[in-house]
Each structure stands twice: as structure tokens, then as C-alpha cells.
Amino acid sequence: MVALAIILVVVSLATFVGPAAIFYVSAVLGLAIDAIELLNYSSIAQGDFYVTVILVTLSMGMSIAAARHRTAVSEEANPMNLPVFG
User: By CB distance 3.0 to 4.6 Å, which of 5, 17, 19, 26 could disulfide with 63?
Assistant: First the structure.
């Protein structure tokens, strides 16, 4: 779990400078953490289990939404595309 957490932190930092595909890597790591939590359900305190699963699932959803979000300005909405009167 510690190794996955460290990898998740590195991937999260890489999203600031890397391509949008890194968000999908973050979502897959979150899925792996959820799977490990579910497999070790009996050895984890019930409150910790639910908090971890909820937070990791929320993180996965936000990673997928961020990967699909387009930040580019369309040509029609570009403020430099003003009409020229002449």
C-alpha cells in the first residue's frame, strides 16, 4: 500500500506537467488501491476502510473527469478573434 501511495503521489505531481493521459494512470492506481482495500477488508478497521474507499473512488472520478476536460479555447470563443470593421 505504501508503494502504491508513493506512486500515486508521483503521478499526481506529474499531472501538472504531463499529458492528460496521466490522469487515467491515476484512476487505474486508485482502482488498484480500492481492490487491495476490498481484498483486505477483514484486517482493516471499518471506519478507515470506508473513508479510504470513498476518498479513492472520488479521486478516480475526478481523475477521469480531468482527463476528459478540454481546456483549450475554441476558435469562436477566442477573444483574439474579434470582428474587423473597416
Answer: 26
